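If you are new to this repository, start here. Below is one unmodified record pulled from the training split, so you can see the exact layout before writing a loader.
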Amino acid sequence: MASAATDPLVLHVRVVTGAGGGPDKTILESPRFLAPAGFAALCVFLRHPRDPGFAEVERRAGERGAPLLAVDDRGALDLGVPRRLAAICDERRPAIWHGHDYKSNVLGLLLARRRPMRLVTTVHGWVRRTWKTPLYYALDRRALRRYEAVVCVSEDLERECLRLGVARERCRLVRNGVDTATFERREPREAVRRRLGVPPTRTVVGAAGRLSAEKGFDLLLDAVAGLIERGHDVEVRIAGDGDGLARLRERAARPPLAGRAAILGYRSDIIGFYHDLDVFVVSSLREGLPNALLEALALEVPAVATRVAGVPALVEDGVNGLLVEPGSAATLAAAIERLARDPALARRLGAAGRATVEASFGFDTRMASMISIYRRLLGRTREPG
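And here is the target side for that same chain:
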């Protein structure tokens, strides 16, 4: 994946906590697609120096051969962050600054004042809400209008960026993608069940993502609890890390979920996790276009997903998955029960999900669009901010 010293450098910059999430997977996957196209890449992650989860980000970067540089970031009042990033820019001389969140977007604008970098950002979605969120998102939305290319991962984010004043010619829809060669089923589901000793009548339901309120995992637990109480042989497994880990584990330990629910924390073997499932569920209340859903579909796991944000652009109800309205444990339970009672439907939706990803959501397709954006920017004069 080596690139020539003269290749233009793309600097991917993002704040990361713990083992990261879907956007971080996308960033670390990008360098190996950029090198054959004549671009160098460096992934610069701002992380707290005492965050133990960053070791997993480093491990994933090593697996993918992605050049990674960690920058200490102790929070909003750490005034050394701009200085450290300026030193990186002066040493590496990037041609393109590619921000991935509000902080990297604001810092990119600041540093580009004295450096000939082209400004690109990806809008992954404004979904997580804390007391700081209104200020951070306000800063991000002001910054977006001054970026030369604003990449949106779903149609609803594209519409929102246009509403916020991003010029039409600077706004680009580039959906998330998954490497279908990596995320490919290599063991039939029936063989997995026998190997793991899963009872033949049991339905194994799974979900994955950041353990925070907007993912709606409480609703999924409520849905599975209701199915168990009605006599269904079902269990649920949730993979991911986040501030909701302890609370969800406490909930999963109470009847009727006790012994039928596992909050697994971060899983390094996410492909193995998907292989164990009969149904994958996205219970989100807010979302962009979730990488986890793409991964599950690529592995032919039939999916139930809430009708939010970019999800309906991927899942067509009854064709390659089942869509339900967000915020209801009852509708999640009904969709899960439907797949459990109709194995033929589950197999058909799983196969169609894989076909959808192969046709329209491959990572190579995504990167071809990104490379086109980079080349177009470098081939023209700088536009006013």
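Two things worth knowing about this chain: Residues 271 and 317 are 25 Å apart (CA to CA). The mean pLDDT is 93.
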